Amino acid sequence: MSSPFAAPDSQQHLPPIPWASLSHIFMFGNGKGGVGKSSVSANAAGKAARSGLRTLIIDCNAQGNIARELGYKRAEWNDGGAALLESLRTGTALRPQRNVRENLDVVMGGPALGDEFGIFFHTLLAKEGPHAYLRLLMCLLPIAHEYQIIILDTPPENPSLQRLALSTARWLVIPVKSDGGAEDGLAQIGLEFSYVRFVSQLNPHLELLGVLLFDTGRTYTGIHADVRQQVQKVLGEDAHMFKHLIGHTESVARLVRKRGLLVQELADRRREGDRSVPETVEGLVSDYEGFTEEMFARALELRKDAAA
């Protein structure tokens, strides 16, 4: 006989999760801010969309950094994360802003994912326990089939949102900088990864796809080797480092957010004669193109290995 005072099992209210059909969901995360998550999210998504793949970005950040990357910060339709919060609160399907770029839709982040989200999610967690972290996935499932690539940009300063994203994604990519402070961020995201996949088994299919060096000198091989040692020390010797990296080009990085254009779009402006765009943009385009292709190729390879 069950106790009349026992809390209901929230698992019984969850529909079956079609994990096999969710291998197109990528997450960029780190336990440290300022390591390029939003920049890489936006430019990788832009590359996918330009290649003809229907693509979705979900901005899980209260700062709404994707709005800066894509230039809609002051657009009248930028709701600051209100629609995302409402979907999470009600458990209804996400409602993306369509065609922010051709083939590219966005679920917007922003201030609504700050204190207001915290109050709501604290209540949900008390009611549902750990399965509350599957709420984002449940809201994504009704529209996930509409996209060939889904990318999650995540915040280090909000562990609940980060865990929601980890419980949704198939692949985790960790951008790091070679500034000597990588270990703390790696340790934090590593612990969260372990909790979601192994401890709680909320997402038993989550995999670490690799670690990406961001905003670094392309020829700093000694520094890169040191970062690799840090990564292996924290995440294990088998942790994959992407061959491609994102180089340091400060003038281009500043111009990207000032104009709200992706790196490829800036390069297009230069090719059309805009000499206010530095020539170094071409190197950055090559970095993003190479990394994005490597990321998708590695995910496909691991999928094939798992199916063999």
From TrEMBL:
Sorted alphabetically, the keyword list is: Plasmid
Cross-referenced SUPFAM superfamilies: P-loop containing nucleoside triphosphate hydrolases
**Per its UniProt record, what Pfam families does this chain match?**
AAA_31 (PF13614)
Transcription keyword on record: no
The record's InterPro entries line, in alphabetical order, gives:
AAA_dom, DNA_Partitioning_ATPase, P-loop_NTPase
According to the entry, every stretch annotated as the AAA domain falls at: 25-206
Is Isomerase among the key words of this record? no
Name of the protein: AAA family ATPase
Q: Which organism is it from?
A: Streptomyces tabacisoli
Q: What is the lineage of its organism?
A: Bacteria, Bacillati, Actinomycetota, Actinomycetes, Kitasatosporales
